[in-house]
Write a structure and sequence with these properties.
Number of helices: 12
Structural class: mainly alpha
Largest sheet: 2 strands, antiparallel
Oligomer: single chain
Strand content: under 5%
Shape: flat
Length: about 250
């Protein structure tokens, strides 16, 4: 087990180095910068806004991811570096959960798992600044605590999964169905009404606004099941492009 923990730590460190290297020498995905802008404005005390002129407009669908980035930004960490740190932590969570559920033995199998995680499409998405590794890490922990029948922890893990991304509600529902099938009496005895409240809250998150950053071109859906509203125009007041203003916010 100590050797496996060392491999996991090295894997997370390598992932973090990769995330920071891309941040320092390359360019993250445009959609990642959009959410970074929301996180920075939230950290600055302006609320969930794209800019200060047009008020609140929800374009950050990954709610908990946005809040965590804002929290680290508030503490003084660059928001891009914060994304790398959280994704590295998520990759470590995936490594731990998979190795325990699969009951891996030996250095070779643990090294293969670490390599598979590092070269996966999930980590490739994280290199673009998205929450991929963090999201999958939370899902892996949900599966792990479900297998271990730690249902009180599972309830909080499922809630976290639904808050990280709206489609986490679907994965959380799948985990709960699987656990209920394996232990029909135990899971509901331990979670009880808390699980019902948890999913009502998660479904509410699913119905939160899911628009992209407004660019002044046509209508966009303010919520997955709601009517479309016109986008406000967000051209910077002092001239310049929207991409320039996003980069300026990120590099402040």
């Amino acid at each position: 087990m100590p050797a496996a923990l060392v491999i996991g730590g090295i894997t997370a460190a390598l992932a973090l180095i990769g995330f920071l290297a891309v941040l320092a020498t390359g360019h993250l995905d445009e959609d990642a910068y959009i959410l970074f802008t929301y996180s920075h404005n939230l950290a600055a005390g302006h609320g969930i806004v794209w800019d200060w002129a047009h008020g609140h407009v929800e374009g950050a669908t990954d709610f908990l991811w946005m809040v965590l980035l804002a929290g680290l930004d508030r503490l003084g960490m660059d928001v891009g570096a914060a994304a790398g740190l959280l994704n590295a932590a998520g990759l470590a969570m995936s490594y731990f959960a998979i190795s325990r559920v699969a009951r891996l033995r030996g250095m070779a199998t643990h090294c293969l798992l670490a390599l598979a995680l590092l070269i996966s499409h999930i980590t490739a998405g994280s290199l673009g600044g998205f929450s991929a590794d963090f999201y999958c890490g939370v899902f892996a922990v949900c599966c792990y605590v479900g297998v271990r029948k730690q249902y009180a922890v599972l309830a909080f893990a499922l809630l976290t999964l639904g808050l990280v991304r709206p489609d986490g509600v679907i994965l959380a529902t799948g985990v709960l169905i699987a656990v209920s099938a394996l232990d029909p009496g135990g899971v509901w005895q331990k979670i009880g009404y808390f699980a019902a409240g948890l999913f009502l809250l998660a479904l509410a998150v699913l119905r939160t606004p899911a628009a992209s950053a407004p660019d002044g071109q046509g209508p966009y859906p303010i919520a997955p099941f709601g009517p479309p509203l016109e986008r406000p125009s967000l051209a910077p007041a002092g001239g310049g492009s929207r991409a320039h203003s996003v980069a300026a916010t990120h590099n402040r």
